[in-house]
Amino acid sequence: MKKIEVELFCPQCLENTVHRATCVGDFLLTLECSNCGKKTRVSRRVPVKELTQDFLERLMTKPLRITEELRRSPHKTLLSLPRRAITKPLRLMQEVMDDLGLLGRERKS
Ligand SMILES: [Zn+2]
Q1: Are 73 and 10 in contact (CB under 8 A)?
Q2: Coil, strand, or helix at residue 68?
Q3: Tell me: the pLDDT tens digits for 64-106?
Q4: Number of H helices and number of E strands within the chain?
Q5: Strands, E, within the chain: which ranges?
Q6: For residue range 8-62, what is the model confidence (pLDDT) as tens digits?
Q7: Rounded distance between C-alpha atoms, residue 95 and residue 19, angstroms
Q8: 67 alpha carbon – ligand 1 mean position (Å)
Q9: Ligand 1 centroid to 109 CA: how many Å?
Q10: Ligand 1 centre and the CA of 32: distance in Å?
Q11: Helical H runs in 33-73?
Q12: What domain of life does the UniProt record list for this protein's source (predicted)?
């Protein structure tokens, strides 16, 4: 068992934070947000290398852009962004997490 640190979008902190990932062999076991402590158990076998490459890019592109804008000018961004633009990254995130079985939902396939 080994631990690595990866930057991921945390749905609880609503920003990219460092997550401690616990791996068994080449597969991911748990992810823990170092900011809020939210622990996510990876129910399906996700290869670590998948997490750190394409997966991360898919996961992070949109949330990252929006949180950066929020940091620069929170008021202006919040007022000018349509609601959908804010919830979209979260939906995308959930879809991706769900896809990988990160939400722990059982699926028969
Ligand atoms: Zn967090």
Answers
A1: no
A2: helix
A3: 555 666 666 655 555 555 554 555 556 666 666 666 665 555 5
A4: 4, 4
A5: 2-10, 15-24, 27-33, 39-41
A6: 888 889 888 898 988 888 788 888 999 999 998 877 777 777 666 566 555 555 5
A7: 19
A8: 14
A9: 30
A10: 8
A11: 48-52, 54-72
A12: Bacteria
